[in-house]
Specification:
- By secondary structure, the chain is of the alpha/beta class.
- The protein has 2 domains: 414 residues, Alpha-Beta Barrel (TIM Barrel); 121 residues, Galactose-binding domain-like (Jelly Rolls), CATH 2.60.120.260.
- Helix content is 29%, strand content 20%.
- The protein is built from 19 helices and 25 strands.
- The strands form 6 sheets. Strands 2, 3, 4, 5, 8, 11, 12, 13 and 14 form a 9-stranded parallel sheet that branches.
- A hairpin with a 2-residue loop joins strand 6 and strand 7.
- Helix 7 runs antiparallel to helix 19, helix 8 runs parallel beside helix 11 and helix 17 packs across helix 18.
- The longest helix is centred in the first third of the chain and has 23 residues.
- The chain starts with a helix and ends with a strand.
- This is F5/8 type C domain-containing protein.
């Protein structure tokens, strides 16, 4: 009976909310003009858009979609971290005055805007009034106020953006230690709510245009839908997830708090919600992977959170390659450090030890493979370089293209490997001059691989955004200006009594994204803007290739295998067949000497173009892959003298062979050679 009464109460409340939404929602205004891009109804009062002209539709002559992609944004972050860290909402059925108001504890002067002065210095004081005056917020350096009001997103769409990735975001530890909250800190509960509200925003905008499916904000769940939406001239919205403990996969004192069943259930639930890309770790080490550190005061504060969440501080080691994690530094974070137990202090770190000791765990690898099985895209930003390296190895072994770097948080030395897989990269929304300089650094690679570029605004992501360059700066933005496609004219954006100018206000909110792109163009970056305008096509290429990917046939699985030797052990077998049994929990191991070989009989002549070797700790620094039709005459098709273990992929021109042999020449350890699994693939 209690359950029945609860459901009946929910139904009554839902009916009342529906009535309120109709009564207080969009109303006809004199601005309704009959153009397809103009709503037949809009809330009154509301924000200005300040764009004239028809949004471009369709594709170019080559059949490619046109437009910008924001690969990393957080529309609903006000529902994260307990619901009181980001103040204001992206929309409200009650109108803009309800949507754009400050958190209650920020009144009367911002004295209790604790997160502001923890992350941004100063005392956090500000005028809390939003609509209609907006004296102090949103601002390029305000980390706790809504920047994604729907009308500001509409302006970005009108200015040429055609794909937006809305990353559902939260962090249970930040929620738990923050002073103000109005809900519990379970991460998946917040993710579910943010997904629902994104669909609610779509319905809210649809209501302005006459009904379901008619608005410009379209949530898409496959790349074909996205291409159709862009062809209509609308905004394709993709759901992603950026959270620190996905599926409850935190770790405490290095003990995982989840298992494979939790991962499968979590991935299935997220996929059902429409999520198609995600991070496996963010800010804190978890049961799946280690993170790329934050720097300075914020890094120290997050390291405190790492301890409170996991019972361990970040641990570092010397890097083994050119990639490295961010330096943690020794900056103090007094407010955060007060949270540590008595007698516990943040450790110091060796400047020569820049890499997180924690990489991709066995559970993390299970999650990566689960994402591949579901044709989802994986975000490698925030992963430690050790974890990222393993992910790229896994993707290369499977020729899987679904890898994303959406906001400049990977080591940039990974860029070519990402492009080589068919992945996509975007740069954080830096100031125009810095953005152009970084875009130029990787421009030759984009030309080589024929790909476009993206930006990750990370708005509502507490990161800070481009500061004003000044009205007198060289090549300042001149208003009004034309959109990149030439079909629209954009003037300064006005909301209530406040008018924003990028030159003097910086990138204060999402409506100023087109102004920022114009600033890039004017600072000498027309070629960069051209690359950005091809960004939507490249993002959708990566997504589509991920959807079409099918696991490659492993010709070696279960095939007869022989070897020059096998290590003897009275308790387990290290026989050659263990390297081709399809079980990564078993392995072949050789005797402890350099010259060894492993041979696989495919049973018949097959086309072979790729061999993968998943090493245990005992690996080869020098080895070669050989093919033979008869097992007697061998030809070398691939070799290396710089092996470093992990997961190797040897790709070569596809050719016929029945026998595959790996000839090991030099050991990388004092032991022999040991392989968990060898794969042989047609291509």
């Amino acid at each position: 009976m209690a359950t029945y009464r609860g459901r009946r109460h929910v139904a009554v409340v839902s009916l009342l909310l529906l009535v309120l939404a109709v009564a207080l929602g969009p109303t006809p205004t004199a601005a309704a003009g009959g153009n397809w891009w103009d709503p037949v109804a809009r809330p009154a009062p509301d924000s200005g858009i300040d764009v004239t002209g028809e949004p471009f539709k369709g594709t170019n002559a080559a059949g490619e979609v046109r437009g910008f992609v924001d690969a990393h944004n957080h529309i609903m972050a006000n529902e994260a971290f307990g619901g009181r860290l980001i103040c204001g909402k992206a929309f409200s059925a009650k109108g803009i005055a309800d949507a754009l108001k400050d958190c209650p504890e920020h009144y009367p002067d911002g004295s209790l805007a604790v997160f502001d002065f923890i992350t941004n210095g100063g005392d956090g004081r500000h005028d809390p009034v939003g609509w209609p005056t907006f004296k102090d917020w949103p601002a390029h350096d305000s980390l706790t106020h809504q920047q994604n009001y729907y009308a500001w997103i509409e302006r970005a769409w009108r200015g040429g953006q055609r794909v937006l990735v809305n990353d559902l975001v939260t962090n249970g530890v930040i929620c738990s230690v923050y002073f103000f909250k109005d809900r519990d800190c379970d991460e998946m509960t917040s993710i579910r709510l943010q997904a629902k509200l994104t669909y609610d925003l779509q319905a809210h905008i649809d209501g302005m245009y006459g009904g379901p499916g008619k608005g410009w904000f379209r949530i898409v769940t496959d790349s074909a839908q996205a291409r159709d939406v862009v062809a209509q001239g609308k905004l394709a919205v993709v759901l992603g997830v950026e959270t620190s403990e996905p599926f409850g996969c935190k770790q405490v004192l290095d003990i995982a708090q989840c298992d494979e069943e939790d991962i499968d259930a979590g991935l299935d639930e997220l996929y059902a919600l429409g999520v198609r890309s995600m991070f496996l770790c963010h800010k804190f080490d978890n049961a799946l992977c280690g993170v790329r550190f934050d720097e300075g005061t914020l890094g120290t504060a997050i390291n405190v959170g790492q301890f409170l969440s996991t019972g361990t501080f970040w641990r570092t080691e010397r890097c083994t390659g050119p990639q490295h994690d961010n330096p943690i530094g020794l900056a103090a974070a007094p407010e955060a450090e007060k949270r540590l137990p008595a007698g516990v202090a943040v450790p110091s770190y060796d400047e020569d030890a820049r890499c997180n000791v924690r990489g991709l765990t066995a559970l993390g690898e299970y999650a990566v493979r689960g994402m591949m099985e579901r044709n989802m895209m994986l975000e490698i930003d925030h992963m430690s370089v050790k974890a990222t390296g393993r992910v790229l190895d896994l993707f290369e072994a499977e020729s899987y293209p679904g890898v994303l770097s959406s906001h400049s948080w990977m080591d940039l030395n990974w860029t070519e490997r990402v492009y080589g897989l068919g992945g996509f990269t975007a740069q954080y929304m830096h100031g125009s001059e810095g953005f152009v300089a970084e875009a130029d650094r990787t421009g030759a690679l984009r030309d080589e691989y024929g790909v476009g570029y993206g930006y990750g605004t990370d708005m509502n992501g507490v990161g800070g955004w481009p500061a004003p360059r000044g009205a007198d700066a060289p090549d300042a933005v001149t208003y009004p200006f034309r959109s990149v496609d030439g079909g629209s004219v954009l003037d300064r954006q006005t909301t209530g009594e406040r008018t924003w100018d990028l030159n003097t206000d910086g990138a204060a909110h999402y409506g100023l994204v087109p102004d920022w792109i114009e600033d890039i163009r004017r600072t000498g970056g027309q070629h960069v803007v051209d690359d950005l305008f091809r960004g939507a096509e490249s993002y959708l290429d990566t997504w589509g290739a991920s959807e079409r990917h099918r696991a490659a046939v492993n010709l070696a699985k279960g095939a007869p295998a022989t070897a020059s030797s096998a290590e003897w052990n009275p308790f387990t077998s290290y026989a050659p067949g263990r390297a081709v049994d399809g079980d990564r929990g078993t392995r072949w191991a050789s005797d402890w000497s350099d010259d060894q070989w492993l041979r696989i009989d495919l049973g018949a002549t097959r086309q072979v173009g790729r061999v993968t070797l998943d090493w245990e700790r005992a690996y080869a620094t020098s080895y070669r892959v050989e093919l033979s039709a008869d097992g007697t005459d061998w030809r070398t098709v691939w070799s290396t003298a710089s092996g470093d273990g992990g997961l190797d992929t040897a790709a070569f021109t596809t050719s016929p062979a029945r026998h595959v042999r790996v000839q090991f020449l030099d050991r990388g350890t004092e032991w022999g050679y040991s392989l968990r699994e060898v794969g042989v693939h047609p291509r």
